[in-house]
Design brief:
This protein is mainly alpha-helical. Among the domains are: 6-44, no CATH class; 72-112. The chain contains four helices and four strands; from the N terminus they run ααβββααβ. The strands form two sheets. The protein has a two-stranded antiparallel sheet. Helix 3 crosses helix 4. It is flat. The N and C termini lie far apart (81 Å).
Length: 118
């Protein structure tokens, strides 16, 4: 039996309903493909604003995005972090320490432990 597409099978199964599923060639027209490719390239380019966009009264509507790399302070100190690995798996501090360790690995220098309170 020759290889049939899904839409051809649907047309055969539901022929009495009067609804037809169009069978489309897999190869697109090369002229259309070039047109689509140029559109996709235009959409994928990021837009950066040189100056903020303001309204008639001088109020800023849209400002250029500033790169943000905030410093993240973890909810435990470094001593608590080291002591937490010695706790049992059933203790919540153990899971908090594991989560903080994951954040340290992901964020690197951006993650910092809470300072010791004296």
């Amino acid at each position: 039996m020759p290889d049939r597409s899904e839409k051809e099978i649907l047309n055969q199964l539901f022929s009495d309903d009067g609804e037809k599923y169009p069978v489309i060639d897999a190869e697109p027209n090369p002229e259309v493909a070039k047109e689509i490719q140029s559109y996709i390239e235009k959409v994928e380019k990021e837009q950066f604003l040189a100056q903020p966009i303001t309204d008639n009264y001088g109020q800023p509507l849209v400002s250029p995005p500033a790169p943000q790399q905030p410093k993240i302070v973890l909810p435990i100190t470094q001593n608590q972090y080291l002591a937490g690995f010695k706790q049992k798996v059933t203790e919540s501090i153990r899971w908090l320490v594991a989560w903080c360790g994951r954040l340290v690995k992901i964020l690197g220098n951006r993650a910092d432990f809470r300072k010791n309170e004296i």
